[in-house]
Write a structure and sequence with these properties.
By secondary structure, this protein is an alpha+beta fold. It has twelve helices and 13 strands. Strand 9 and strand 10 form a beta hairpin. Helix 4 packs parallel to helix 11. The termini are far apart. About 7% of the residues have low confidence.
């Protein structure tokens, strides 16, 4: 049995292995083909009687869209002026979009409605899909989708868009099933502030990584990737042999966004819990996920229609947006880390010498959001919530381990400041913030 080892340039994922393998298997006489993206090579075996020449192998590799030869070590910083010219154009487009978003106040969209009827979940989802939660879920999806489309320019628009369809199907089904369970048990999924912060920071880091790859200024990152650990991949049946994209992986990714620390999602989870019903909880979370689908599918549509030079500039623009959103998530998540946890959600205080402060919680933050209180004296914090269907309605105070879901109307939190300094509070994503200034 003869064996040949062929070095191959340009592979970046498991689908590259499949494409090259399929072309090599068309060569008459080959009995065994092994392709490794990690090792950047292919190994072919054939009987001594078979006539297999190097030209056929080179041609098969080229027809698959790759080159025979060893990978060259890529520089960390691009030396091509064209890359920086395209990045400058992308930066201009991004700046215009950013100013329009600020001008129309799109980051502060909210929804004011009474907590009645499951149909409200659909309306809240429509708002969440184009506002603050887009920074967490939409930004991550944009990075992954744009990278996938860039690496598969030969795919049709529908083939590039298909992952988004299955992502949203999985998201809707996953939210429905998990929503039913939390509605049935009657207990909210309330992770600690530290866990919320950790998840937000990790997601922000992943977004920045994909964004840096998209702007194409750091060539050395092209062959780098973030993948699930082998154990988790096996658990969900996502083995290495499957293509880079599969319906199953897209649906699982969509379902798992149920656990991301998005304020809108948490507000709907608490709404589902309050029903005490499996079917109502299922309906609430399914309708919420359905409401977010148009916004998320809109991102998918953009990544699937651009081609050629326009696609390159679009991906760079998307990369800048993803980097910004990732940095915002890291900054917000870092504010959620605290020193101690009190599962009761409040710190007990005595009735005497209480300092009473009042605050209003609106759909887009808190007013007033800065208070001066005295050390050692109990604080009675009265919060009037205009709407519980907002990111701002999930309030955390990391220093005291306080996590409270504000319901429409009056809410009370009590604690005793024990040190001079500042006590910061925010929504669960760290996006809307405020602080207590503690003095003697």
């Amino acid at each position: 049995m003869n064996k040949k080892t062929i070095p191959i340039r340009g592979m970046h994922c498991a689908s590259c292995e499949l494409l090259i393998g399929e072309q090599l298997k068309k060569i008459p006489g080959l009995t065994n083909v092994y392709v490794s993206q990690k090792r950047a090579l292919a190994i072919v075996k054939y009987p001594e009687t078979a006539q297999v020449n190097d030209k056929d192998i080179v041609k098969a590799v080229q027809e698959a869209g790759y080159e025979v030869g060893r990978n060259q070590k890529l520089p960390w910083i691009s030396r091509s002026p064209a890359d920086y010219k395209d990045l400058a154009r992308a930066g201009g487009i991004f700046l215009v979009i950013y100013l329009l978003v600020r001008w129309f106040n799109l980051v502060d969209l909210g929804f004011n409605a009474p907590n009645s009827g499951v149909a409200v979940a659909l309306l809240v989802g429509l708002v969440a899909g184009v506002s603050t939660c887009m920074a967490l879920i939409g930004g991550l999806v944009l990075g992954l989708a744009a990278r996938h489309a860039e690496k598969h320019p030969e795919a049709t628009s529908m083939q590039k868009f298909r992952p988004h369809i299955f992502f949203n199907i999985g998201r809707i089904l996953g939210f429905a099933i998990l929503g039913g369970f939390i509605g049935l048990v009657g207990q909210a999924f309330k992770p600690s502030n530290n866990l919320l912060g950790f998840l937000t920071v990790i997601i922000g880091g992943v977004m920045i990584f994909f964004g840096l790859k998209l702007i194409e200024i750091f060539p050395a990152l092209r062959d780098k990737s973030i993948t699930l650990p082998a154990g988790i991949s096996r658990l969900f049946g996502l083995h290495k042999e499957v293509k880079e994209y599969s319906h199953k992986s897209a649906m699982i990714m969509g379902a798992l966004t149920f656990f991301l620390p998005c304020g809108f999602t948490q507000a709907m989870q608490l709404y589902a819990v309050s029903t005490g019903s499996f079917w109502q909880g299922m309906a609430i979370m399914a309708l919420f996920a359905l409401g977010t689908a148009p916004g998320l599918l809109g991102i998918g549509g953009l990544t699937s229609v651009f081609k050629g030079r326009k696609a390159r500039i679009f991906f760079m623009t998307a990369g800048l947006a993803v980097i910004l959103l990732g940095w915002v998530n890291i900054s917000n998540g870092s504010r959620l880390f605290g020193s101690r946890i009190d599962k009761s959600g409040t710190v007990p205080v005595a009735d005497q010498n209480v300092q009473e402060v009042r605050m209003n919680q609106f759909r887009n933050g808190y007013s007033p959001n800065i208070f001066t209180v005295k050390k050692g004296r109990p604080v009675k914090w009265i919060i009037n919530s205009a709407t519980s269907l907002s990111c701002a309605a999930y309030l955390v105070v990391p220093k005291y381990g306080i996590s409270k879901s504000l319901r429409a109307g009056e809410n009370i939190i009590t604690f005793t400041p024990t040190q001079i300094g500042e006590i910061h509070f925010s929504c669960s994503m760290g996006m809307y913030r405020g602080k207590f200034i503690v003095v003697e």
